[in-house]
Amino acid sequence: MSNNTAEKHDFTKGSTAAGIVRLSLPMILAQLVNVLYNIVDRMYLGRMPGDGRLALTGVGVAFPIITIINAFANLCGSGGAPLCSIERGRGDEKTAEQIMGNSLTLLVFFGVLLTAAGYFLKTPLLYLFGASDETIPYANAYMDIYLAGNLFVMLGLGMNPFIESQGFAKTGMLTVVIGAFLNLILDPIFIFRLNMGVQGAAAATILSQLVSALWVLIFLSGKKAILRLRPSTLRLKADLVKQILALGLSGFTMSVTNSLVQIFCNASLQFYGGDLYVGAMTIIYSVREVVQMPMQGFTQGAQPVLGYNYGAGESGRVKEGIRFIRRVTLIYAAVVWGVLMLFPQTVVRLFNGEAELLEVAVVSMRWHFALFIFMAFQYVGQTVFVSLGKAKQAVFFSLFRKAILGVPLILLLPHLWGLGIYGVLAAEPVTNIVGGLACYFTMIAVVWKNL
User: Fold this and answer.
1) Distance CA 173, CA 108 (A)
2) Are 450 and 391 spatial neighbours (Cβ–Cβ below 8 Å)?
3) Contact in structure between 388 and 303 (CB atoms under 8 Å)
4) Range of the domain at 130
């Protein structure tokens, strides 16, 4: 590594806000492209001749399984990458490389284990997650293909943060863009031209992820990387594994609890409203992925800067970075809230134009995003906890919003004041305001004062 490269990726130099923007813009683009190509899958499926709504709903009930799988990628990636940033800030690149190598070994282990478990358990899980006899064939068909390429998905998602944590934001963006571009080309070919339906959508996804995973591994093993994958770093070390998993539990818990809420929400919607409401929620989850990704990409772009400066003892720059991400995320969340409240019909029609589904989805969307602005506080608090290695707080607030608040509210609110289906929908805005503010003010009390 040259001195020029080292200086370029020293986050204690120059403007903190500029450093965050430089890293986050490519990541935002990458995250958006990543989500959009998944959304395109659903748009294609929703417009399949004859059974588009059932195909869309079937793939929707498979989301929680995919989310759980992705949670294990987050466990290793969001646990190892911030630790790498902190060690780089301390000047200990050897330990940083060992963290990266151990994370790769963990990803391979979890990938093989989850693939085997997925094939064994998928059908009963899909019924549990809200599938009906009409939608289960589509959900099963999608998962049969997706699980075959599960390891590629996990390697791409789990190792790409190690590119970004070194300051190579554009290279990290290309990881996602390459896979997305391939998926956009393959989707219509597999779904319509080859008449593979939902299996075609899954095949396009895993082939694209295979290419992305190869791109990541080749870069991290090459000469351009500051931290490199080496055979000597792949052997697991108990102390490093403990640190990776402890910090990664935040991202893991957030993904798993999101999945948990989806499971209970789909099951409750199936009970109170049937396939129509489950289909509407599939659209809403898709929209939520899109609108949350810029916040996620932005705050992830801030993590290497905050972590590096924290490791280097630059507390003033850490506080400057926190102020900046708070301001940007609040403005963004307010704009998104306004758009979704004013134009829900336009958004829903991108997925399916059936009048009955449109009516249900519009009402559901307004309930779901009613207090979306408060998600900004959740992202700011979680980002600071993860960036500074505060594993206990990061994990707790990942659990608090969804598992401790969200699931009980989904089960309780429908029985209060005769709310029924609207009680299920009201759970999300309540968790947004309570969970978001609790996470943010705890961060102020625990971290800000100490800085």
Assistant:
1) 22
2) no
3) no
4) 3-448
What's this model's pTM, rounded to 2 decimal places?
Answer: 0.66
Q: What is the DSSP letter of 426?
A: H
* Radius of gyration of the chain from its Cα atoms, rounded to whole angstroms: 21
The DSSP code sequence of 182-241 is: HHHHHHHIIIIIS--HHHHHHHHHHHHHHHHHHHHHHHHHSTT-SS---GGG-S--HHHH
Low-confidence ranges of the chain (pLDDT < 70): 1-12, 27, 30-53, 56, 250-251, 352-353, 391
Helix, strand, or coil (residue 440): helix
Residue whose tokens read 């690149």: 93
State the total domains in the chain.
1
Query: Whole-angstrom Cα distance, residue 20 to residue 304?
Result: 8
As a residue count, the chain comes to 451
Q: For residue 134, what are its two tokens?
A: 């009409």
DSSP, collapsed to helix, strand or coil, labels residue 14 as: coil
Per the CB < 8 A criterion, the answer to whether 109 and 147 are in contact is no
CA distance 433 to 422: 18
Which amino acid type is present at position 442? Answer: T
Two structure tokens written together for 55 = 């195909």
Q: What is the distance, to the nearest Å, from the Cα of residue 63 to the centroid of all Cα atoms in its chain?
A: 12
**Residues near 94 by Cβ (< 8 Å), separated by ≥ 6?**
none
- Phi and psi dihedrals of 167, rounded to 5? 95, 5
Neighbours of 148 (CB within 10 A): 15
Instruction: Report pLDDT for 335.
Output: 93
